[in-house]
User: Fold these one by one.
Assistant:
Number 1:
Amino acid sequence: MVLADSAARRLACLSEAEGRPLLLRVAVDGGGCSGFQYRFELIEAPAADDVIVRCDGQAAAVDPVSLPLLQGSEIAFVDELVGARFVVGNPNAASSCGCGVSFSI
């Protein structure tokens, strides 16, 4: 799993705006229209068993349960007409919903 430059830049901006270092927690939950859904949240510190992915001094944390479903993925940040958001390019996903928030294996 990798953290793209775009995601690292956005995390740096968010950390600067908050005045403290922030990490991006990426998790996979059951649910969504395709079976699994991605969950993103900004945190100050990872859990003891999290896997940390770094890029340009920024980091994302992934819990061990979500890690197998995210193996080989790229976490990026996109700013498009429909909105700005973190996204996961997941090679394990057999299909996903139109907005890219949920997927199936």
Number 2:
Amino acid sequence: MKALTANRLTDGEVVFWKSGQWVTRFADAELWADDDPAAAEAEGQGKTQPTTVVDAYLIDLVESEGLWAPLSYRERIRALGPTNHLHHGKQAEGGAVIEALQHAHGAARSTGRVNLIKRK
């Protein structure tokens, strides 16, 4: 499955595509099968809104216990918001937003390196 995501220009908020518009909750995102041509069409529509978002792109999803979540660890963090603290960002909303991401955490795939910075 796939979902379309981008960052909103006005505030940098991560947004997801649903029925021709951008929504802020991953749980509300429209999902497509990997081979569904409608996903590419939606990506094209999203990219034609350059005054609204920055660089719309499709992400891969994984299912766990009937819930969908971004496959890559990076995208999972983006979907949760700017912090992992339970009282800030999208985590504070709780419900399906968090549940969908927590159920598939074991299947997340890291797509990059982590650079550690030594403090003096």
Number 3:
Amino acid sequence: MRFMMIVKATTDSEAGTMPSQELIDAMQRYNEELVKAGVLLAADGLQPSSSGIRISYPEPGGKPKVIDGPFTEAKEMIAGYTLIEVKSREEAIEWALRMPDPHGYGQGEIELRQVFEFEELSDNTESQKKEAILRKQALEQKKG
């Protein structure tokens, strides 16, 4: 089971305030634990929404609309994420509870969401085969 720990943005992260060295060290220790446990798939911080781009589809079948940041409501935005693969929902919660306060100022909030496996989205065997081939190709390209 894959889970994404979504670190919610704050006014500081949206202002581009960089984390303290103490927080960077704590996050690196946490990521080391995830690596040692063999559950870490990815972990990254995101730049503020002022450098972001939002694509919306305002009309069914219509052209997408491009909107440059910044966006409002920092609490609804994402400042970073950690993607893990674990055996259970409970294990995902345990790992999320161990993450240091992601902003270091008591404003941290983490949303934990399970990632769909393609087989859960479609029972069409042809679609499943095609998806497996695409994922394999993507891995091979990355290994280069």
Number 4:
Amino acid sequence: MSDAAATGPDGQSPEGQSPDFDSMTRDIADVPAVEVITTVAVHLMSSAAVNLGLAEEGETHKDLDEARKLIQALAGLITASATEIGSYHAAPLRDGLKSLQLAFREASVVPDEPGQGPGEKYTGPVFG
């Protein structure tokens, strides 16, 4: 059982002791940077997709303003980290980003001009 699972809702272990934050911190230090970057990118993609209304209950969660912010952050992350994570990891992230940018354009009542959509200041204009 992990230290995190052994704590109660108040952050205390069953014996009343504080959790072992040293071992929990050490765990994240063992994760390679490429994995952290791609995990963050996937979370941004997932959240943007939900805010674009692409989830199961699409229209319930649709919020294009939030989607724009998430896509912008995703584009910045992918652009800034592409050389660090390599094309093997960056290529699928770029494909996902482009799909989200196109979905945003399609979902917008008044689409942005090419080059003005979310993330396009980093990626350049996106065309279908």
